[in-house]
Amino acid sequence: MNGGPSGFHNAPVTKTFVIACALFTVFFGIQGRSAKLGLSYQDIFRKLRIWKLISSVFSFSSTPELMFGLYLLYYFRVFERQIGSNKYSVFIVFSVMVSFLFEVMVLAILRDPTANLLTSGPYGLIFASFVPFYFDIPVSTWFRIFGVRFSDKSFVYLAGLQLLLSSWKRSLLPGICGILAGSLYRLNVFRIRRAKFPEFIASFFSRLSWPSMGNPPTAPARNLGGNVPSYTTRQVEAIAYNVYC
């Protein structure tokens, strides 16, 4: 699948989110607190810690999780390019909030005050994005590596699987909550796919966005999976429009 021009051209919300995740992870990593950011029953029901709720959305708990997480966030920027920053902002907020509600339900059911049951990081957004990716982005090419059959989407799935199992149960539960959130968005619960923020909120990210480090928009698109054949930009535009609009 071709994500269009490399870099963050026409994806200021994704760019801001990726930079925020990197900064939060580095900041808490330097302080040696990354492993303590995961949510627990006590953080929600015994002693509410607002700072931990916010940081857990953006900060990954380890360097491997950061690498795979940022790769996936960067890859899914194609959806923002096709539906616009406004609707993509709605998708982010919906995915994060709904997956968080599912996580709270998990903590309430398990009621374990002794451990951080859920790892930190934007698992809700990342795995919610896999729902339209799975159902609505078709496979265009199959190929074999050492006799094993892969599709042009396999590298994205492998990165997601690595992230999903990176901390076993602590990462598996938030990932499942993200998939549920993405499924509700796909089902258009509360007509969420028609919702929009006021224009000044969406334009804020464009003003906040730093100059792009990628190629200019006229440069040829590059395949993120290597030399695997990719979709045309027109195919991606049509698919993404049908998914989110």
What about the largest sheet? 2 strands, antiparallel
Mean pLDDT metric:
83
- Give the CA-CA distance, first to last residue: 20 Å
Q: Numbering strands along the chain, what is their spatial order in the largest sheet?
A: 1-2
Helix content: 55-70%
Label the overall shape: globular
Secondary structure category: mainly alpha
**C-alpha Rg, in Å?**
18 Å
Number of helices: 11
The secondary-structure element order is HHHHHHHEEHHHH
Q: How many DSSP-defined strands? A: 2
* Share in β-strands: under 5%
Low-confidence stretches: 212-233
Write up this protein.
The protein has 245 residues and is mainly α. It is 59% helix and 3% strand. It has eleven helices and two strands; from the N terminus they run H-H-H-H-H-H-H-E-E-H-H-H-H. It has helices at 12-30, 41-46, 50-58, 63-75, 77-83, 85-110, 123-136, 154-164, 169-186, 199-208, 233-244, and strands spanning 142-145, 148-151. A two-stranded antiparallel ribbon has the order 1-2. Strand 1 (142-145) and strand 2 form a beta hairpin. The longest helix is centred in the middle third of the chain and has 26 residues, at 85-110. The protein is globular, with a radius of gyration of 18 Å. The two termini are 20 Å apart. Mean pLDDT is 83; it is low at 212-233.
